[in-house]
Amino acid sequence: METTKKPRFHYAWIIMLCGCCIVGIQLGVFAYTIGNFFLPLSQSLGVGVGSISLYQTVSAFSGALVFPTAAKLIQKYGMRRVLTCSTISAALAYAAMSQVTALWQVYLCAVWIGASGAFYGGATVPGMINNWFAKNNGTIYGTCLAVGALVGVVANPVIATVIKASDWRMGYLAIALITVVVMLPVSLFLVTLRPEDKGMRPYGADEAESEGAPAKGGPQPAATGVPAEAAFKSPAFFALLLCVPCFGIVYNITNHITTYASVIGLGATVGATLTSVSLVGGTLGKLTLGRFSDKRGAQAAITLAEGCAILGLLLVILSQSFGSWMLVLAVFIFGYGASTTSLMGALLPKAVFGSRDYTRIMSYTSMAMSIGVGIISPVYGYLYDWTGTYVTAFCFAMGVAVLCVAAGVYAIRKGKTLLAQYQ
Q1: What is the pLDDT of residue 123?
Q2: Pick from 337, 316, 279, 283: which is nearest to 158 by CA?
Q3: DSSP class of residue 194?
């Protein structure tokens, strides 16, 4: 059939480009630049940094509530329509954020931003990549995440420069403009959920068939692993619900690097540069730790990632005695481990319970990630407000990293016992 012919250029690579754009906006622009606004916004409104960082809690809870329905809306109305509407909604939400004059308005905009941003996350890119690529889905998604980090490397100093040259209100307007310019062409003309919608097959389908693995759309073998019902009742699952949010909580200290640099006298511009250095480390981590996990196992990858996060934070604290030059090395090492939040959160459920009900189990761990990060992340700002130093916040993050490793190792070991029962 004509639809089964392998074209010279497969549209799946356009889909990968779309994935890079979506993740680039969601992570690189929405998430990775937020730290630039904490201090100037708190000073403008006359409130503490902790009160402003509570914005993340509100946004995370809003996104978690919308997340379960996002995939359903995409299935019902099509990705182009839904993503276009969410793009316009997100741009309007950031434009509204530029006009706030009171703390309650910040929280109201946070609800709006969180609900709009939910369509850029797990409901969109992983499913789209899974549909369009018959093989190496993890590598493709990891590449999209790495591009998102690289976008953050560029976006962070750009937004910091805009804020310094004008004010934080123009910074939010810049985010709104970037969202429209990048995402509208993608959502209106390029993005497509399934290859069947363009009369095509997934990229790599022929190779998958020749290796004995059925392509998408063909007969599928029974997936191995623990059934969801058994997984949900196990101690490993509860350990997983404890471990996965810790990845995001540890990473979230990145959003305070700009503020930290400001309060120790280095300035917001230097802080934004340090955040970019952290994201460069994170890009390298996304590209290497997934492969390391494939070779050495998820337990080794988690230990290495959180170990780097702890070492980086220790070096940040020591830099107060040895000089600020150490901060560059410190945030790079921290970023290498801590910026793998999405990658590790995706690897662990499969390592613990196998692939049988992976998507169903991961939907709960993703929700736990969003809720956990939303609840705990403002603690960093409040710890600074209460103690007048970020050292306490760094120590708290290191404690969470230790808890993350302990819970992850426990979940993997308990999961092995369960997996043995369903082989």
Answers
A1: 55
A2: 279
A3: -
| This prediction's pTM | 0.69
DSSP string, 81-125: HHHHHHHHHHHHHHHHHTT--SHHHHHHHHHHHHHHHGGGTTTTH
DSSP result, 129-183: HHHHBSS-HHHHHHHHHHHHHHHHHHHHHHHHHHHHHS-HHHHHHHHHHHHHHHH
What token pair was written down for 76?
A: 């019902």
| pLDDT for res 220 | 45
Distance linking the first and last C-alpha atoms of the chain = 38
Q: How far is it, in rounded angstroms, from Cα 141 to Cα 16?
A: 8
Predicted confidence (pLDDT) per residue in 294-320, tens digit:
778 788 888 998 999 999 999 988 887
Contact (CB, 8 A) for 376 and 57? no
At residue 322 the predicted structure's pLDDT band, cuts being 50, 70 and 90, is confident
- Token output for 17: 């480009």
Q: Give the chain's domains with CATH numbers.
A: 7-221 (1.20.1250.20), 223-423 (1.20.1250.20)
Q: φ, ψ for residue 276 (rounded to 5)?
A: -65, -40
Alpha carbons 103 and 379: distance in angstroms, whole number: 17
Residues 6+ apart with CB under 8 A from 326: 315, 316, 318, 319
Distance CA 160, CA 37 (A): 9
Query: How many C-beta atoms lie closer than 10 Å to residue 26's C-beta?
Result: 23
pLDDT at 1: 42
Query: Three-state SS across 199-228?
Result: CCCCECHHHHHHCCCCCCCCCCCCCCECCH
From the list 381, 402, 357, the residue with the least C-alpha distance to 55 is 381
